[in-house]
Write a structure and sequence with these properties.
heterodimer, A: mainly alpha, two-stranded antiparallel sheet, 7 helices, 72% helix, elongated, B: alpha+beta, Glutaredoxin, 2 domains, 8 helices, 9% strand
């Protein structure tokens, strides 16, 4: 089943990106909050909460995708976040605001950032597609889900039935 | 008949067993999901905890007590505002344009003490404007006093070069011309601007800003607390003026 292997690859790539993106920001909360503010989309107090919570959520989604735990749920969350990021970058682009996207730490205003926007949107679109693929494949290879949710009690039932006879 | 009923009873028993098994299976599934979600929530909580531990609050020295700024207004005014800025930062320029007139009026009315603290945030990678402008500001402050320095500060922001091409757009001669326009004498500032006579001042001002955990510009401190209530620079400026007035 090649699709299951492609699903594994998509999980590792997307999950790896999330782990790096989240991990780099967790120890730099002030920069993360400033990066969210720089989009000038959210009210200040909301930007602070998002700046603090987003890296943690990114990290957990990444770990879930790499390990293959609650894979489809994690993939859907991942897809939603990428949609949000694409909207965010498109919106600063449209408003003529030049900022570092703050995707992997950093953030804030940056000269000539507009030339990076197309590539950033392309990257996020590719990762969005990968997330949707993972969500659509029922089972991917080497996922912890198949251990956690295998139908373990079936043999037990056979044994009890056998004992009855 | 007895064989038939026996078969029925067996089938029923098997069905019951299957139902019980399905129930156990569902329960286990649910518990697994709950367990995994609980672990995820724990990790999110832990990561947010790490973030909070790493969060640095801005601890600026009180308005009017830094050696690296220029102050307007009454020391005993009910409010104090500190603005950390880089002469090159476009948002600082935008904030200046939005707030300068109102802050000056409010300071003149005795409602607020305002201290502008320029430092070097953006002068790097061969870009010297931030350092040259802050150096000239320090020089003018020393030679011509705070009133001229404040006017020079305003003129630097009114004539702010673009971040991308600052050094070509704003050579030393332009900076000197603005200093003279503000009221400094050219003989006082010419050499110092060309030789970066107050580069040490700029370095120390920058160290002080870093020590205060100022991470970006503009950073506004209202009555000792970081003020960042606003989506855009415009909002921020309006809210700041409303808070002080």
């Amino acid at each position: 089943m090649t699709l299951a292997w492609v699903g594994l690859l998509a999980r590792l790539v997307t999950g790896g990106v999330w782990i790096v993106a989240g991990g780099l920001k967790i120890t730099e909360p002030d920069a993360s909050i400033a990066a969210v503010r720089a989009y000038q989309l959210l009210p200040s107090s909301v930007a602070e909460v998002v700046g603090l919570a987003l890296p943690a959520v990114e990290l957990v989604i990444g770990v879930a995708l790499v390990l293959g735990v609650l894979t489809r749920g994690a993939a859907v969350m991942s897809a939603l976040l990428f949609v949000g990021f694409i909207i965010g970058i498109a919106s600063v682009w449209a408003r003529g605001i030049e900022i570092d996207c703050g995707c992997f730490g950093g953030g804030g205003s940056k000269v000539g950032a507009a030339s990076d926007y197309p590539w950033e949107i392309a990257r996020d679109s590719a990762l969005l597609a990968a997330s949707l693929l993972i969500a659509s494949v029922r089972r991917t290879r080497l996922a912890l889900d198949s251990v956690l949710f295998e139908r373990r009690s079936a043999p037990d039932a056979d044994v009890t039935e056998g004992a009855e006879n | 008949m007895s064989a038939n009923s026996k078969a029925n009873a067996r089938a029923q028993k098997a069905a019951e067993l299957r139902a019980a098994q399905a129930k156990r299976e569902n329960r286990r599934r649910l518990l697994t999901i709950v367990g995994v979600v609980a672990v995820m929530v724990l990790i999110v909580g832990g990561a947010i905890g790490i973030s909070l531990l790493n969060k640095k609050d801005v601890k600026a020295v009180a308005a009017g007590s830094s050696d690296y700024g220029v102050t307007i207004g009454d020391k005993n005014a009910p409010h104090s505002v500190i603005i950390y800025e880089d002469f090159l930062c476009p948002y600082c320029g935008a904030l200046e344009a939005e707030t300068r007139g109102d802050l000056a009026d409010l300071a003149a009315d005795g409602k607020v003490l305002v201290e502008y603290r320029p430092f070097n945030l953006l002068g790097a990678e061969g870009r010297t404007y931030s350092i040259r402008a802050a150096n000239a500001f320090a020089l003018v402050l020393e030679k011509s006093g705070p009133d001229v320095a404040k006017k020079f500060h305003d003129l630097l922001f009114e004539n702010q070069p673009s971040e991308a091409n600052a050094d070509a757009e704003a050579p030393n001669d332009d900076i000197i011309a603005l200093a003279v326009e503000a009221g400094a004498s050219e003989s006082d500032v010419r050499d110092g601007v060309d030789n970066l006579s107050h580069e040490d001042w700029v370095t120390k001002a920058t160290d002080e800003a870093h020590k205060a955990n100022v991470q970006g510009t503009p950073t506004i401190i209202l009555d000792g607390e970081v003020f960042d209530d606003g989506r855009s620079v415009q909002d921020l400026a309006d809210n700041l003026i409303a808070a002080v007035d």
